[in-house]
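Predicting holo structure, magnesium ion bound.
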Amino acid sequence: MKITSAKVIVTCPGRNFVTLKIETDQGVYGIGDATLNGREKAVVAYLEDHVIPCLIGRDPGRIEDTWQYLYRGAYWRRGPVTMRAIAAVDVALWDIKAKMAGMPLYQLLGGRSRDKVMVYGHANGADIASTVEAVGRYIDMGYQAIRAQTGIPGVEKAYGVGRGDMYYEPADAALPTETGWNTAKALDYIPKLFAKLRDTYGYEHHLLHDGHHRYTPLEAAQMGKALEPFRLFWFEDCTPAENQEAFKLVRQHTTTPLAVGEIFNTIWDCKDLIQNQLIDYIRATIVGAGGVTHLKRIADLASLYQVRTGCHGATDLSPVTMGTALHFDTWVPNFGVQEYMRHTPETDEVFPHDYSFAKGYMTCGENPGHGVDIDEALAAKYPYSPAQLPVARLEDGTMWNW
Ligand code: CS2
Ligand code: MG
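Done. Tokens:
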């Protein structure tokens, strides 16, 4: 069996997605996601100019060998662009292998570990009262786990607060939108949100919160401590993870569970945090961390230390990543939770898929492969539209972490 052609499809059904389609001499094709939010074209060029020429004529069944070829072969290892390109190839090849076997992908990974996958949704509002209402709507839809983000008085365009109810979309302009941040105000306001949520709905549901890399280690520790009475499922990206030592300080001060990894690309980014048991959930995902082949390796390392998975699943991860992640989640023994931000109906139409949501859980389909396709004719109707992620500044104008 041979790879005969491969192409990159860029489409914008409400937001930009980059998709790789690999075709074979047996008529079977595979699809992989290569979307890098706000930097899409860099991955398009990487794939078209440097990766696709190496794929033609290769045996699509040699998934591990192709992964090693692209990772070691580039010489310049790691990084979000390289690893997304590798992920797209890897996922497309797993799709082909599973289609050839006539099996849903999770069967090739080792079969079912669970019947359904718990997902968390994003509730947000301009202030505490509207966020509490939004969480109520997610509870009514059957969610067991809900992330809550609120606007903060005095903070302009706080992270995580969308314009619509269901489709928070931060990459909202051709040039980065300027947003604000004030840690002191957040330290004061956010614990009040969670107090109100527990007061209103009790302790039956899992509540999550994303710090989005905003706090210093000590501030993160203070926030973790302040949130302890409200028993969060996790406090995510409490401080930037480039310096992983920082998490020792956070850990010494709080028992609030910690989740990190949506911007990690390889097992090397995760290694120290996992081995030193400084986190409870690893958020690396299929498209970000080198595809199924590499994420499996990360999850196996994590399982040795009782760290569980919590795959990133924002809207910039296409339905192809969502579908593949659901197969991974169905298999992975140390599963924690899966993030699920709904895609717009236009996106769902461009990417026909067989996964489904019911009462707070998702289920992957039983079709051979990862169960997600792309309607190329429809995709062509939505041309690429430049959109970048926002930036954040403190009140005195200092650049901060968005
Ligand atoms: C976020 C993301 O889902 C999350 O937890 O941190 O919304 C993140 O901001 C985006 O994926 C950036 O592209
Ligand atoms: Mg996050």
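The CA atoms of residues 3 and 57 lie 5 Å apart.
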